[in-house]
Design goal:
With 283 residues, the chain is mainly alpha-helical. The protein has nine helices and no strands.
């Protein structure tokens, strides 16, 4: 139950730092960063779907140990896929961060004689093959996380019992979040070049998918968690269902509009506007 709170705390901190440093443009933006951060956002979406699925099963059969018998058979292996992909993401991400911290002079000119003949450990950290393996592991884990959203949405739609408007909106928002991120990740998975540079210049940019993924990550995870918890009893009023529907339609329209009209300057880390920043914090 504390996982969404930890996610929101870290996200609020990063959003605040980006807002404070907006004049310095201290943050970068590229397709690899979209995939890496998208996996963290995806964990919140997957967590929200699991909450909605288990809540619906309990609402149909009551809260007891046997309520899981009403879950579709693929929910269990989808949960395993999501947890395993997240574990791979953590290992690959922390390994890359550790390498960058320990070998921060890798991109500079040699300043001492020992820099010309590095030891075996430094050679391993600077090995292009190791970086390719970590990048591939990161990409595969992200694809697994994004792909796990789709069977969870189908499970929520095919379960016994009535499907509430809130749960329907949760499914649409989750799909709107997963599809652009999966498109960006699959491009790196299919067209990865082992001789590519660190900035992944060998992968052709996809401005429409990247713009849609960035917009989906701005409000999608928070909205999914809210929709998963908003109508747990399953008897929302008409005006509440109307608000849920408007929120989902507005989110999908914003993602589609960003994908249709991507920014002309790619990889631009623009600081958030005050309205966008406070909206994300409030959600």
């Amino acid at each position: 139950a504390m996982q969404p709170l930890a996610y929101f705390a870290v996200r609020s901190l990063m959003g605040w730092l980006q807002y404070v440093e907006r004049a310095e443009h201290a943050f970068i933006s590229n397709s690899l960063l979209i995939i890496a951060t998208g996996a963290a956002h995806c964990w919140a979406v997957v967590y929200a779907l699991f909450i909605a699925i288990h809540t619906r099963a309990m609402r149909y059969d009551g809260y007891h140990e046997g309520y899981t018998d009403h879950l579709p058979f693929w929910v269990a292996w989808t949960e395993t896929l999501a947890v395993g992909s997240m574990g791979i993401w953590w290992v690959a991400g922390f390994t890359q961060v550790t390498i960058r911290i320990l070998d921060d002079d890798a991109g500079g000119l040699p300043s001492e004689a020992r820099d010309l003949n590095p030891n075996m450990f430094v050679q391993l950290m600077r090995s292009q093959r190791l970086h390719d393996i970590l990048t591939m592991a990161h990409t595969v884990s992200c694809v697994g996380l994004f792909a796990s959203i789709i069977p969870l949405c189908f499970a929520m739609a095919l379960m016994k019992g009535d499907l509430t408007a809130c749960e329907m909106c949760l499914g649409f928002v989750s799909m709107g979040f997963a599809l652009p991120h999966a498109a960006v990740a699959c491009r790196h998975l299919n067209f990865a070049n082992p001789k590519k540079n660190d900035d992944a210049a060998a992968v052709a940019p996809a401005p429409a998918a990247e713009a849609a993924a960035q917009e989906a990550a701005s409000l999608g995870p928070q909205l999914c968690v809210i929709l998963a918890l908003a109508d747990s009893p399953g008897h929302a009023f008409l005006w509440q269902n109307f608000v849920y529907g408007v929120a989902a339609v507005a989110f999908l329209a914003a993602v589609a509009a960003c994908g249709r009209s991507p920014p002309k300057v790619g990889d631009a880390a623009l600081p958030p506007e005050p309205e966008e920043f406070w909206t994300c914090i409030l959600l």
